[in-house]
């Protein structure tokens, strides 16, 4: 049985998207391969294939693998900061692209962010989440939920500004789950709570509790500046919770470019208007729910598992 190594810059303690992807892929592959998860590759000679998440942050492991094993297969999974920030100016991230046999993006529009010369190496593997029935929602108010650690890429300022616009609306409540990765943003979250009694920053929560809150919310709000393909959008859609999301490539690649619940990045006025419409116009929320329900089958675990296994199988066969 072949031994595979998945390099992820974030392990369990980080409780972020990279970790969720890495552990899910490990589970999907363990019926056919011996799989281990590491933050840095430490060089065992019997690893047959490396899957590395993040071209920049895993660059040292990627370079070490290629030096040690010039002919063994290497797949690099590109995150949002890879695609929409680092590869344009970071030498190590760009080197990782050249060293990889295959480049994996997590939504179809990701391919377009790469240099044309690299696009022939691209595989699209859309992430998945097991579906769960939607939970009944209260009619007393609209509950929105943002899930994202406090860091600039997630653009929590847009959510806070929308909360301030809606501070007089007693029937619109905004919750926020995410760890305080940036102390200044944590201070800003506390300030928003003081000014807006219906905004609550709940801090970091275990994944199971986060999923439960997603199921109870009327809407998931995702105002990110950049994304490779946010798994939390998939978790919401497959649990019957529609989303409001910034119109960036990483979100539109999952939702569709015609999705009605999009707003321009950073436009808190648009976001506040959408939140109000979802409360005041029941047909609006129903349309978003219907659009998301049409997308949900694309995020089936069986499809992600099949695509991932096919990629690994092809890489190992080509190496032989």
CATH architecture descriptor text of the largest domain: 3-Layer(aba) Sandwich
Q: What is the CATH class name of the largest domain?
A: Alpha Beta
Structural class per helix/strand content? alpha/beta
Number of strands: 12
Average pLDDT metric? 94
Q: What can you tell me about this protein's structure?
A:
With 320 residues, the chain is an alpha/beta fold. The protein folds into two domains: 3-125 and 300-319, Rossmann fold (3-Layer(aba) Sandwich); 142-299, Glycogen Phosphorylase B (Rossmann fold, 3-Layer(aba) Sandwich). The chain has twelve helices and twelve strands. It has a six-stranded parallel beta sheet, with helices on both faces. It has a six-stranded parallel beta sheet with strand order 9-8-7-10-11-12, with helices on both faces. Helix 5 (156-165) crosses helix 10 (268-280). The protein starts with a strand and ends with a helix. The model has no long low-confidence stretch (mean pLDDT 94).
Secondary-structure map:
Layout (H helix, E strand, L loop, with lengths): L2 E5 L9 H13 L4 E5 L8 E7 L5 H10 L5 E4 L2 H5 L6 H9 L2 E4 L16 E3 L17 E6 L8 H10 L6 E6 L5 H13 L3 E5 L3 H10 L2 E4 L8 H7 L5 E4 L2 H7 L6 E2 L4 H13 L1 H14 L5 H19 L1
Parallel strand pairs: 1-2, 1-3, 3-4, 4-5, 5-6, 7-8, 7-10, 8-9, 10-11, 11-12
Helix pairs in contact: 2-4, 5-6, 5-10, 10-11
């Amino acid at each position: 049985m072949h031994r595979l190594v998945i390099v992820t810059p974030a392990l369990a303690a980080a409780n972020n998207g990279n970790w969720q992807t890495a552990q899910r892929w490990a589970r999907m592959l363990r019926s056919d391969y011996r799989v281990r998860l590491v933050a840095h590759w430490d060089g065992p000679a019997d690893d047959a294939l490396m899957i590395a998440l993040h071209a920049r942050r895993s660059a040292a492991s990627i370079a070490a693998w290629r030096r040690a094993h010039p002919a063994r297969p290497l797949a690099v999974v590109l995150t949002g900061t890879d695609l929409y920030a680092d590869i344009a100016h970071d030498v190590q991230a760009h080197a990782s692209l050249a060293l990889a046999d295959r480049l994996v993006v997590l939504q179809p529009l990701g391919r377009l962010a790469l240099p044309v010369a690299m696009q022939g190496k691209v595989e699209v593997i859309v992430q998945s989440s097991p579906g769960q029935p939607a939970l009944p929602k209260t009619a007393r108010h609209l509950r929105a939920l943002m899930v994202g650690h406090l860091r600039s890429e997630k653009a929590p300022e847009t959510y806070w500004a929308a909360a301030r616009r809606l501070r007089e609306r007693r029937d619109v409540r905004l919750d926020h789950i995410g760890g305080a990765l940036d102390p200044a943003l944590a201070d800003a979250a506390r300030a928003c709570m003081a000014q807006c009694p219906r905004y609550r920053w709940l801090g970091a929560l275990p994944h199971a509790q986060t999923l439960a809150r997603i199921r109870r919310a009327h809407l998931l709000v995702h105002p990110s500046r950049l994304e490779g393909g946010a798994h939390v959008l998939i978790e919401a859609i497959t649990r019957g919770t529609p989303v409001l999301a910034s119109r960036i490539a990483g979100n539109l690649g999952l939702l569709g470019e015609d999705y009605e619940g999009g707003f321009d990045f950073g436009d808190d006025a648009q976001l506040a208007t959408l939140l109000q419409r979802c409360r005041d116009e029941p047909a609006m929320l129903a349309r978003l729910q219907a659009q998301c329900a049409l997308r949900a089958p694309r995020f089936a675990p069986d499809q992600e598992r099949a695509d991932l296994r096919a990629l690994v199988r092809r890489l190992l066969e080509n190496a032989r």
